[in-house]
Design brief:
homodecamer; about 90 residues; alpha+beta; Alpha-Beta Plaits; four-stranded antiparallel β-sheet; 2 helices; elongated
Chain lengths: ~90, ~90, ~90, ~90, ~90, ~90, ~90, ~90, ~90, ~90
């Protein structure tokens, strides 16, 4: 099943650059893995914000939760999830 | 997977009693079937309102959508669905 | 550019079935055309509601507006549009 | 009577791991006790968030308040409670 | 247990005066009964609106629901209920 | 005139216990005085939260303001006030 | 005591002009009286809307309620009232 | 001074086409006049909606109100106005 | 033109008393000046809060902005401004 | 295409004056460049707030994102973007 996932990155402004860079690098690497596994299908930026909209696929909400919390930046992200139903037009 | 489902019944006030009664009877019958099928697991009233909170189980959001739209009153209901993730404490 | 488009269908409950069916048929036909033109890329149902989430692509917001208003049901739809920015991970 | 209880965990990000682990362990232990006492009946995760939805049973709101504030993490949780009415279908 | 109950009266503006008067008379009579039974403890007007705030006491939310729906005007009222917990200062 | 007063206690989590205890003791003492003076008429807990709903009586909003700001915890409380009108049923 | 009062005029669009004119005339006449009585102290338009912000003075919320409901248009107005406290700077 | 003005067109769906066309023609004519007078400076569509965002200039909010209510469609429009302050960078 | 101005004072709780007193003194002095200049016409307290509602008059929003930012406490205030239109009844 | 961009400046109150001044100077310089490039077309202040409304033009949301994040103050700004569609009246 597919999910629409919104994230707002709330990493504090005074985070040292080294920490921030390491988190971002880890974030990208984990995102690449989630794409390979077919979990992360699309990712967009919300223009003007440190925020994203993503299209995810997972077996169920618990599996999605595990995927999202595996992102190194998760701890500082405000995440909202919306479960989507397949539309008959797409069957 | 489980879903928390809220409904607000917006059937117009001037609906004839006969129509209303028939809809309610059909609603109860369909609800009984959904319970038997294991789709409707719990149902509560929101006190003071013509509204409910329900705990549903379905294979995915599309299956839940089909179950909800099979209720005769669905056409007049404002429905919101929240997908829940199994909590590790319950495994 | 891509857009996330939400629609809520507000067609009155007392619309004659013939009118409703004709609108739906026209809606499906126009949607098929928009898919062929690459404007409508994905479509989901919001579970439990007469509502959709869609992923659209159009040259600009004015072109998207023209596509959405070409849907026969548009007149009865509450539509909200969110412009998405390509994420560097997808380049 | 039954209550729907939502929690958002607001424990600061910079909480030392040892403190966090101890709080979580205490949280789980207290939750097990509340389950045994029949107060905590079901618990779900809100996917993507450090948040839960729970189904509780208590004699009245004051008893529920005592149960919730007995959780070691309560001090850092934003909690909202909704009292539910038994639905005639369930009698 | 005690509840804070808000009501907004949505009776249509074009309701005939006779119907309106009869509903109001029935409303007052039922309110007097609920006071006698100790269910309706206090009632205020929201200034400027056709709305009230009430303090109710009932065994549980289901009993409160029955009391509120016994009001002749209930069908046209938007009602919200908040369950209150006894404060230790009042014990 | 009567007022419905909501408070959310925002005292920081890292407040030393001694300070917190002293504030609470002062809060209770001042509340007892306000009850004696007929200003604080009823007090409830919002279940699950460090929050209250209170029924106050004061000559006017300025007098109520003085009563509320006389509470030692006021500085850390988010307070909202709603002025209530006497209902004709209660005259 | 003083109150800030907001009104939104919801008179249906298809109200006959004669009815509308009569209501407006009655509204103006009653407003003039309320000014003379010192109840209506200031009145502004919310630009672009059929809405007003007003500064009223009344003995208490019940007296204000009586003044507002004496306006012929009240039945079609959505009214919200905010009780204001005298500021020490103005004493 | 300049204002940001949002409009939502709420003309009923069952308005006869002739009435609708006449209103639109009148709307366009009046808009052209307001542009000539320097009152309407820019106008955009909110994509997907029968709604606009406009940049207006008027002597004060009362003059803006008069300009907006001179639009033939005003009666059916939900309008919100935001007064903007000149930014020092633009001086 | 006139404006309705709301302020919420967000000065941190741990601000030293001397700093706070100095800010308040400066605030009062500047407010007195703004009254003399006819900019600040009325000021009320929002009961129960460290917040005010004020009626201001200024040539335009930019002049109002300058007046508000001249208040020593401005830096810590959350301010919202609403431009009001003169009502024909007051002409 | 054009965008309406709102910013709220959340730079902490205790930022040293030198840092603040440097950020502001850099902000002005970058804004001048964006104006020259035709990206920033208009800028207003939200009266009473450390906030702006801006009219931007960019090829697409990603280009706008790059322009906004090039502002030295961006890191401390809460930014919301609304994509606007050209209105037929302006063609």
């Amino acid at each position: 099943m597919e999910f629409l996932v919104r994230t707002e990155n709330l990493l504090p402004h005074d985070t040292p650059d080294a920490t921030r860079d390491e988190l971002r690098r880890g974030e990208r690497e984990r995102a690449v893995e989630l794409r390979r596994e077919g979990v992360l299908k699309r990712l967009w930026r919300v223009p003007g914000r440190n925020a994203t909209v993503g299209l995810y696929e997972a077996e169920d909400p618990a599996a999605l939760h595990d995927a999202l919390t595996s992102l190194p930046m998760w701890k500082w992200m405000d995440v909202t999830v919306e479960a989507l139903a397949t539309h008959p037009q797409e069957k």
